[in-house]
Amino acid sequence: MNIAFSNLKGGCGSTTLVLLMAHYLASLNKTVYLIDLTHERSLEMLYQKSLLLEEKLPFEFFSADLSKAQLLINRLSRGDEVLLFDLPKLSEDQHYLRIFTQINTFIIPFTYGTLGISAAVRYALIASKLAKHANSIFLPNGQGENITGEHSSSAQQLLRKLGKLSAPLSFHLGLQSLESLSIPPQILFDFWAPLGLLSDQYLQVN
Is the pTM above the cut of 0.90? Predict the structure, then answer.
């Protein structure tokens, strides 16, 4: 299964959330490959720190340029493994588009607000055209349960027409200061319930 985290708008937490999901799915004894295809290589930098600290990670990590990503995907796709992608922003690069069309599920982190919802909607529309077989899951990030005002009804109805709307994730200060790919157990525990709900309802990897 190929699962990608991305959005048209930066700063939505895709990198942090794909790392959280890697830890969660690995806890289910899944074979998980975390793949950084972004230009910033944020996960790659954290991975280098994990190597220095000799941390034992519950998943395998890879990074690649878009031109070499397909070879990596072919090598890793053998059976019931889960490939988690931190994707760069959308582009017309042919290597990028080829990978994009192979995604089974897009998880689109976003924040409520005009710009956040607009970017998430546009991303889902593009995904539905380029990867017709794929599902989109909207993941409200960093705002907790108390979503009020116009966005609590009309925006949610719009998102549900385009994909699944997951339960929101709360802001966690500990995620802002990660120094490696390891995440402290207490932080993981705080996210286990919403990640489990998302996985059970929408990912079907259990």
Answer: yes
